[in-house]
Amino acid sequence: MARNIERMRAKAAGLRVGLRPHVKTAKCLEVIERMTGGLRGPVTVSTLREAERLAEAGYTDIVYAVGLTPNKFDRARALRRDGVDLKVILDSAETAAALAGSGSADDSPVPVLIEIDSDGHRAGVKPHDGALLGAIADRLTGGACLAGVLTHAGESYSARSDEALRDFATLERDGAVAAAETLRALGHGAEIVSIGSTPSVLFSEDMSGVTEARAGVYVFFDLVMAGIGVCAVDDIALSVLASVNTVQAERGRYVVDAGWTAMSRDRGTASQPVDQGYGLVCDLEGNVYPDLIMTEANQEHGAIALRPGSTAELPKLAVGDLVRILPNHACATGSQHEAYLVTDEARAAVVDRWLRFGGW
Amino acid sequence: MARNIERMRAKAAGLRVGLRPHVKTAKCLEVIERMTGGLRGPVTVSTLREAERLAEAGYTDIVYAVGLTPNKFDRARALRRDGVDLKVILDSAETAAALAGSGSADDSPVPVLIEIDSDGHRAGVKPHDGALLGAIADRLTGGACLAGVLTHAGESYSARSDEALRDFATLERDGAVAAAETLRALGHGAEIVSIGSTPSVLFSEDMSGVTEARAGVYVFFDLVMAGIGVCAVDDIALSVLASVNTVQAERGRYVVDAGWTAMSRDRGTASQPVDQGYGLVCDLEGNVYPDLIMTEANQEHGAIALRPGSTAELPKLAVGDLVRILPNHACATGSQHEAYLVTDEARAAVVDRWLRFGGW
């Protein structure tokens, strides 16, 4: 984990862009402290609960990067009254008008980043839709003010080559910068230009016009990231420890006491060239067993077996043997657990236990 | 929920079989109290953590229905020393011998149910494998003793007709009873004959030879259960409340603030005749919007749109509107949350908040 954090820090520094780590993967104060270099610097959150937990821990520069809805205006303003510089995102003139008209005279205006759709992934305003950008910006008066633009190239997770990853990085940057320039041409200030996803930041070669990069999953990495070439399997810093509880030699498999409650149901590698099932199996020290994957997941049971078509030999395991299972998606597997057991570098000893937070 | 609990209670009473509710779906003391009729009667757990939480709450008759591994012997014995009649399951002579040889002279023997594989679903001894049944039973001396047999027809979740469900119920009962009789013929006592899954219990017509039935998901039901005909959609007692945060009329969809962290990644209806995506969308009162399903799930975002091929009309929703989303799999969706918000029967008011417990 420490190596992954340093890699992203150095990458952002090299691109001369601010780094605003996303806390949604880790949801853990000890991890976030390391992601921010101990400085309680800028962070990104995906829920107001995350923002509230970070505010309690002394973080004051927070972007809430999921479209704000009217039923959350009060909680967002409460955070700002408590001294947090919370910035929010939205992508419609209706929400902008509603936010502008909310709050009391004593409240400071809520800074808004207009969400930009740089790759057709999910939500946001098209970068060149000057009419809508202008309509939103025009409404950000009174209880709200325009602070800039934000985009997330979520489609970059489906990239299949270094070139495609570089293209997504360019697409994301160009979309955000174009939207900011459109707003400026209309006479609006758009100070913050925020972009990011782990793949697009790590494959970016030029961040001109961008003020900050957001990324989260890099802290642990996972099999999906390894599958698109953003990290090596050996960089994955999160695993689930499981015990063999049934040996089924005649079926060429073992049953272990980790199911979807431990791994999640995420099958993010199913559409990749190498399907890792519900996870790739390692020994206790983290050495990968060739082609050994979790092929089935029930609530508290998993089946581990060789990947279909494998010519590798099934390792000899006995009831009670421990294995580590690397996750498809670190965010999803992490969210199934209430704490991380922290190991030393050799993964030989547990040296600490760090609580996660959840909820909304 | 109250209606679902009463339905299962009446069914077990009619079959003259004991009911041992499985707590893995709800993981919530207030729900479990209602499943056991306020009597703190027999319960089934899927983790030792569940057993420990129930023991603290005064439950003393607990079956831990996931194969025991040697690294859990100490915790199992600790529960028994605290006055809990904890029964465990295993399916190998090796584990039986290890358990028999563990513990101290002061410990009472751990009662063991031999896990029986009635339908090829996952783990267990084949019902007619007298050699293995005998070998396990022979080893259950000293620190362990034979208490009976247990099976779970997990394949019943894939049934597609009432007849198939009745067949699974028969298969499950016949397998468990045959294994118990095999053990008795070998001179072993096999007092407890434990079977169960929600579909097989609700479709059972004869429990002769069975002493107890286990079931869990019936407490909430879900779209998978509705899809196989075990309940109606209107019986589903669990939903996720979400807000619309982006209207995408041109794409025929809405984005809501509930993603896989709220629904889980379970796609259990994908293999059923009607694929419900990540969930079926209702209004706040629980009235289903025809064909409106969650078609995509990101971490904190979901897309809701009409089912492919639907001729229904997309309902008019606006930013901030609230919808309820019914889950594919109640166990999986429940496990994404730290508490249940309890509504009145009209789903109009939240009347209580009940905490869940998790972990292992």
Uncertain ranges of chain A = none
User: Which strand order do you get reading across the main beta sheet of chain A?
Assistant: 1-8-7-6-5-4-3-2
What proportion strand of chain A?
15-25%
The CATH architecture of the largest domain in chain A can be given as Alpha-Beta Barrel
Individual helix count of chain A: 11
How do the SSEs of chain A run, as a string of H and E? HEHEHEHEHEHEHEHEHEEHEEEEHEE
**Number of DSSP-assigned strands of chain A:** 16
Number of domains of chain A: 2
Stated plainly, the CATH topology of the largest domain in chain A is called: TIM Barrel
Oligomeric nature of the chains: homodimer
- Summarize the amount of helix of chain A as a percent range: 25-40%
Please tell me about this protein's structure:
Two copies of one chain form a homodimer. Chain A is α/β, with parallel strands linked by helices and 360 residues long. Chain A folds into two domains: 2-221, TIM Barrel, CATH 3.20.20.10; 239-326, Lyase, Ornithine Decarboxylase, Chain A, domain 1 (Beta Barrel). Helix content of chain A is 28%, strand content 24%. The first copy, chain A, has eleven helices and 16 strands. Chain A has an eight-stranded parallel beta sheet. In chain A, strands 9-10-13-12-11-14 form a six-stranded antiparallel beta barrel. The first copy, chain A, has a two-stranded antiparallel sheet with strand order 15-16. In chain A, strand 4 (85-90), helix 5 (93-100) and strand 5 (110-116) form a beta-alpha-beta unit. In chain A, helix 5 runs parallel beside helix 6 (130-139). Chain A is elongated. The mean pLDDT of chain A is 95. At the A-B interface, helix 5, strand 9 and helix 10 of A face helix 5, strand 9 and helix 10 of B.
